């Protein structure tokens, strides 16, 4: 059984999205946040349509389910305050923000910025608009990354369940 390979078009689209997202993280303006969030929502909507009528259905179902779920848990109402602070990606975005965007490097040190045990390391910056846009962009990028991972896992699980279909797809 051969491993499934992504198409060149899908690989190029993913690389282009990641490049734009990384550029947006470097200077998190309102326009960049809108561009990246709109691109992520468009990709998830296309994945939803692909899950309904698409040909490699397992990939699109996994992409849509995992991508939409991550976006809901990271940016959705109630979840953005109760669930998102506990996500590893939120912690990674906090650390990346503190290392790249904060001018005052005196704040370096474990636990210095935490006001309570359950708060993230950048809790002091919660009402900083650059911080909020940075997180919006970062979570939109992470939603697509999670969606791609979900699609790959869905294809793998589908191939394990039906080896004949996997053999037909690879030949």
Q: Can you describe what's shown?
A:
- The protein is built from seven helices and no strands.
- Helix 2 (30-53) runs parallel beside helix 6 (129-161) and helix 5 (88-100) packs across helix 6.
- The protein has helices at 8-26, 30-53, 57-75, 79-82, 88-100, 129-161, 163-170.
- The protein has one domain (8-170).
- By secondary structure, it is mainly alpha-helical.
- The longest helix is centred in the last third of the chain and has 33 residues, at 129-161.
Structure classification: mainly alpha
Alpha plus pi helix count? 7
Cα-to-Cα separation, first versus last residue: 9 Å
* Overall outline: elongated
Largest sheet: none
**Tally of structural domains:** 1
Radius of gyration: 18 Å
Mean pLDDT across every amino acid position:
81
What sequence of helices (H) and strands (E) makes up the elements?
HHHHHHH
Q: Helical residue percent?
A: over 70%
> What oligomerization state is this entry in?
single chain
- Poorly predicted runs of 5 or more residues: 105-118
Strand content: under 5%
Number of strands: 0
In short, what is this structure?
It is built from 7 helices and no strands.
Write the layout of secondary structure elements.
Blueprint (H helix, E strand, L loop, with lengths): L7 H19 L3 H24 L3 H19 L3 H4 L5 H13 L28 H33 L1 H8 L1
Helix pairs in contact: 1-2, 1-6, 2-3, 2-6, 3-6, 5-6, 6-7
Task: Describe this protein with a few key phrases.
171 residues, mainly alpha, 0% strand
